[in-house]
Amino acid sequence: MKLYDVAIIGAGVIGTSIARELSRYRLNIALLEKEEELAFGVSKSNSGIIHPGTQNPPDSLKGKLCVQGNFLIRKISKELGLDFKEAGELIVSFNEGETKELLRLKEEAEILGVPGLRIVDKAWLRQHEPNLNSEAVCGLYAPTAGIISPYRLVYALAENAVRNGVEIYAETKAVNIARSDKYFEIDTSGGMYRARYLINAAGLFADDISGMLGICDFKIKPRKGEEFILDKKKENLAKHLIFPLPSKTSKGVLIIKTADGNPMIGPTAEEGEDKEDLSTSEAGLNKVLMSARRLIPAVDEKDIIAYFAGLRPWSGNDFIIRHETKTHGFINVAGIQSPGLTASPAIALMVCNILNKAGLGLKRKFIFRSHRKKTIHLFEIPLSKTKDLIKRDHSYGDIVCRCEMVSAKEIRDAIKAGARTMDGIKFRTRSQAGRCHGSFCTTRIMKILSEETKTPLVEITKRGKGSEIIKENRSTERERV
């Protein structure tokens, strides 16, 4: 049985960031993921905001890592061929009391080193955000806030990590972990794995993984956030990311620009116990609409094309990132809620430093392939370039998803890159993500996925076993025989 230098449990944005950073070194690395595909856990419901660092205490770990991550994500995006867009952030004040709070936030953010902050007045808001509530009196403007596709970031990190030697195992759920004198034994649904060092990046289930090694001093509580996606025709509803003043438990309901054009409104922040509960509710919708309309009154329920909920792994007011000295070689990376996506590259650097101090010994490779070829998405490029692509490969002209302008070529490329489910294709290409919710393209995508993977249509799933799209009638099949 192969002995890995490092095993990472959890292949969301944190696990893949760590894997990619560690792949710079001469190490054998395994990345284990319980779902059928990557980014199917906490990362799939991320809004894609790259925060500037304006809403975190200056003495917090998450604040420091957020500011560092905001800087690093630009370089990583260029290397991996991702579209990072600097949108800027506005935290809006409606009265004198809220303005005092804005000044406090500005002062704390400046201690952290957030650049370019300024208080903008009513005239500035009217000029730069014409749809904003006219009752807003001022705002805290942070120009370094940005947006990125959280799914495509995960896939790009993973692809680059694999190119540099990382081995990824999906459908590999850790069920028990034991520590011997020299290594960890990780018993999984996909077999046994051994590693000298073990990193817990299991998101909502990080407390369960930690508990397998007797470390039970933190508890992950799922904090549900319901969000609502608007039609792409509302892309210019806001020019910036619009925030209210944050509360003690949440950044509040936002007007969110996204990397793919569709604005979003949300999220709620409801504490619960069920780590699988992704239901949405009428109460959540009403709460989000009311709060969003306080910021931009023109928000219209009729423009909502999709509802979804995500669960954030809350374990306290700060991240937990530490080497567990009582279990040498075990690193907990837990409670990584917002701004975890932004902080992910900085978290990866911190984990590498922890491993080095814990005795792993990081020796750089002579060759690290830092770059990845940019994936082609027709919805991102002008028509003139699309015509050139079609001349080179006619399948670029075979449009499968009309809402999002996704071609058969892009669907097949996504499958070759690792997509095995309908959601995996959706996250990579945006097919099925438009107003028709896949009513036009689903059957065609299923056929392509079946052909490319040699999988029967009745075994094609939305997001893994148990979510089959066609339910085979066994009794009818027996009658035919």
- The residue ranges in which pLDDT falls below 50 over 5 or more consecutive positions are 476-481
Cα distance, first to last residue? 45 Å
- Share of β-strand residues: 15-25%
Q: Quickly give the CATH architecture of the largest domain.
A: 2-Layer Sandwich
Tally of separate helices: 13
Q: What structural class do the secondary elements suggest?
A: alpha+beta
CATH superfamily of the largest domain: D-Amino Acid Oxidase, subunit A, domain 2
CATH class of the largest domain: Alpha Beta
Determine Rg (CA atoms, Å): 23 Å
The proportion of residues forming helix, as a percent range, comes to: 25-40%
Apparent shape: globular
Provide structural commentary.
The chain is α+β, with helices and mostly antiparallel strands. It has three domains: 3-43 and 150-220 and 317-357, 3-Layer(bba) Sandwich (FAD/NAD(P)-binding domain); 85-147 and 221-314, D-Amino Acid Oxidase, Chain A, domain 2, CATH 3.30.9; 378-474, BFD-like [2Fe-2S]-binding domain (Arc Repressor Mutant, subunit A, Orthogonal Bundle), CATH 1.10.10. The protein is 32% helix and 21% strand. It has helices spanning 13-22, 61-80, 96-112, 122-128, 150-163, 206-211, 282-295, 340-357, 383-392, 408-416, 422-429, 442-453, 474-480, and strands at residues 3-9, 29-32, 49-50, 85-86, 89-93, 118-121, 138-142, 146-147, 167-169, 174-179, 184-188, 191-200, 221-230, 241-243, 254-256, 264-266, 270-271, 304-314, 320-324, 330-334, 399-401, 406-407. A hairpin with a 4-residue loop joins β10 and β11 (184-188). The protein is globular, with a radius of gyration of 23 Å. The protein starts with a strand and ends with a helix. The relative contact order is 0.16. Residues 476-481 have low confidence and may be disordered.
